[in-house]
Write a structure and sequence with these properties.
The protein has 609 residues and is α+β, with helices and mostly antiparallel strands. The chain has 17 helices and 28 strands. Helix 10 (412-425) crosses helix 11 (440-448). Bound molecules: zinc ion. The site of zinc ion (ZN) has 4 residues, from helix 4 and helix 5.
Length: 609
């Protein structure tokens, strides 16, 4: 076995948000070893240029300084080395998100993609990492470490030595250090932990009691016979803040960011919307441990961390995960049927409200995620569809279609289990593995015996609305879409900045767009009266579709006048109602929704405690 690369990371200056990293390379290339830092982090499809926060890269070899030359935006070359080399550099860490690194006197967090230089050509070498405590920081004696990197000398939750079999593994294990709260539970014999950073009075016991059945249901979903999880341990690394939301998946952990008020406090009962959102996020990232971390699109095998890795399949990897995250809240008994239908209706309303769904397919949205979905601007709602939200609805449509055509004997669950078998559990790792761009319809056919290629083409590669009303009716669920309000609309989204009411987006084809108004315009007066968000709403409520309004607005510093013909609001507010059903439909509903499918409203979430 080759000698390990040894990384040391020290929160050298928490107040200045600075980590110092050293890297020992036992056998650097004698002709000029190059080192690089990823430009993006898997799971978040945007080039983030982590190298912009790396500074003062120095190197020594055989007791002498070695030159370090920057040769690309994220790559350095060492001068000739005769023996092992030691590289030292600093990383500025002040990004409070799940995607990068953050350090201050209250805690430290990092993803390896932000802090660990890659030794080009030596990606397969084992890595060791010494995680050091901050020197001379008051209160740091109470700091612990949370990560699923295997220990190599460190005590449980202690500073010290950890290891990884290669670079890819090293950077797939985020690390938290600080005085976090820690909850524990076990699923399928595998220890699970949740570490919570940030001031909270969270009810850890309840949190564990609610996460546990969600995790259990997912393990049993992918491995109904053996009920074996694909990891030895799992960690929910959670940072609670005043305002924030996000999650990033890893192979045996996840980094989550949430509002502290979304977490259940001691003595709280019932399921708040915020807590349901948090459990949905945790469920989403846990599902990814199978679906995208192990079952991967071919484009991600291996990840190319230097550049974009486009694939048209994010609607499968993110959309299906978004479908199953809430579905598992229902199957685990956290959601009642009414809770689940409300969440589903919200997703449907969000998709229907965006005119971009008629211009972009979820397959194209996936491919262009790097430059469109992750880089949204004022025009995005007109031209982009979310491969998360519409992808989840495509999953719903496929699931219900398979159930309908197979008489309830097959479902999307079978497709997921076949994907797991073919591309996850039994897959031989290595380049070229992973779901090919055109392989999905074949997988569906193999799992269900049904040829759904025409449906997949229309729903994922086309832009027509999905036939959800009919499919849901088969489950005894009525879909009603109506306007959010009876008042007519201008066809704009607004933003109130101080006293100014700005146009955030002018919807393509809407009354404002047709009259010539644009995103960025500042509304001054409507029919001669000064407007803000509230008065504009009141004014619209007094009008009818077809009536004309005189709008004054500033574009840049020029006053302009527009005549807008009001239109009726579109029917984009969806509600779903469960009808009473016969035995056969009831059985179908239970097979689809698990515990939520068989019970009436009320109760199950209250059992937590
Ligand atoms: Zn996701």
């Amino acid at each position: 076995m080759s000698e390990a690369l040894v990384y040391r990371i020290c929160p050298i200056d928490p107040g200045g948000h600075c980590f110092r990293v050293t890297l020992e390379i036992p056998e650097p290339s004698p002709t000029g070893q190059t080192l690089s830092l990823p430009t993006w982090i898997p799971g978040s499809y945007l080039i983030r240029e982590f190298a912009r926060h790396v500074l003062r890269v120095r190197a020594r070899s055989g007791g002498r300084a070695v030159t370090v030359t920057k040769i690309e935006k994220n790559r350095w070359r060492l001068g000739a080395c005769r023996a092992s080399a030691v590289i030292e550099y600093e990383v500025y860490a002040w990004d409070l998100s799940v995607r990068a690194a953050h350090l201050d006197p209250t805690h430290g967090f990092f993803n390896g993609t932000s802090v660990f230089l890659r030794v080009d050509g030596q990606h397969e070498r084992p890595c060791e990492v010494e995680i050091e405590a901050p020197p001379a920081l008051t209160g740091a004696s109470a700091w612990r470490v949370a990560t699923t990197l295997p220990r190599a000398g460190a005590r449980p939750h202690g500073f010290g030595r950890y290891r990884a079999v290669d670079y890819d593994t090293l950077v797939d294990h985020p690390v938290e250090m600080g005085s976090f709260a820690l909850g524990r539970f076990e699923v399928a014999g595998v220890p699970h932990e949740i570490a919570i950073t940030g001031q909270t009075d969270v009810d850890l016991e309840r949190l564990c009691a609610d996460l546990s059945p969600i995790c259990e249901a997912q393990v049993a979903f992918f491995e109904p016979r053996s009920k074996r999880a694909p990891f030895d341990r799992y960690l929910f690394l959670t940072t609670a803040v005043g305002e924030g939301y996000g999650g990033l998946e890893h192979r045996d952990s996840t980094a989550l960011l949430c509002n502290r008020n979304d977490l259940p406090y001691r003595g709280q009962t019932g399921l708040t919307e915020g807590y349901a959102r948090f459990l949905g996020l945790a469920s989403h990232e846990y599902f990814h441990a199978w679906h995208v971390k192990r079952i991967r699109p071919q484009a991600f095998v291996p990840y190319d961390l230097d550049r974009e890795n486009p694939t048209r399949l994010l609607w499968i990897f993110e959309g299906f995960t978004s479908y199953y995250d809430d579905l598992f809240l229902a199957r685990a008994g956290i959601f009642t049927l009414e809770d689940y239908l409300k969440a589903l209706a919200r997703t449907m309303s969000a998709v229907l409200a965006g005119p971009g769904r008629l211009k972009q397919s979820v397959a194209d949205s996936s491919f262009d995620a790097w430059i469109k979905y992750y880089r949204q601007d004022e025009h995005s709602p007109n031209v982009i569809v979310s491969y998360y939200a519409k992808g989840a609805l495509v999953a719903l449509a496929l699931d219900l279609e398979i159930r309908r055509l197979s008489g309830g004997t097959r479902s999307l669950d079978d497709v997921m289990r076949l994907l797991w078998q073919e591309y996850g559990r039994d897959a031989i790792p290595g380049p070229g593995r992973g779901l090919a761009e055109d392989a999905f319809p074949g997988i569906v056919q193999q799992a269900s015996g049904l040829d759904l290629s025409a449906q997949i083409r229309a729903w994922a590669y086309g832009t027509r609305d999905l036939p959800l009303a009919g499919l849901l009716a088969g489950m005894g669920i009525e879909l009603i879409a109506r306007p959010g309000s009876p008042a007519p609309v201008l066809g704009i989204a607004t933003v109130q900045r101080g006293a100014e009411l700005g146009v955030r987006t002018a919807y393509t084809g809407g009354p404002a767009h047709q009259a010539g108004l644009s995103a960025g315009d500042v509304l001054v007066a409507v029919d001669g009266l000064k407007v803000d968000e509230k008065t504009l709403k009141a004014l619209l409520e007094r009008h009818r579709p077809g009536q004309r309004l005189r709008v004054h607005a500033f574009r840049r510093d020029e006053l302009m006048e527009f005549e807008v013909v009001l239109a009726a609001a579109q029917a984009s507010e969806v509600s779903l109602k469960a009808q009473s059903v016969d035995r056969a439909t009831g059985a179908g509903r239970r097979s689809w929704l698990g515990r939520a499918g068989g019970l009436r409203a009320g109760s199950q979430s209250q059992k937590a405690r």
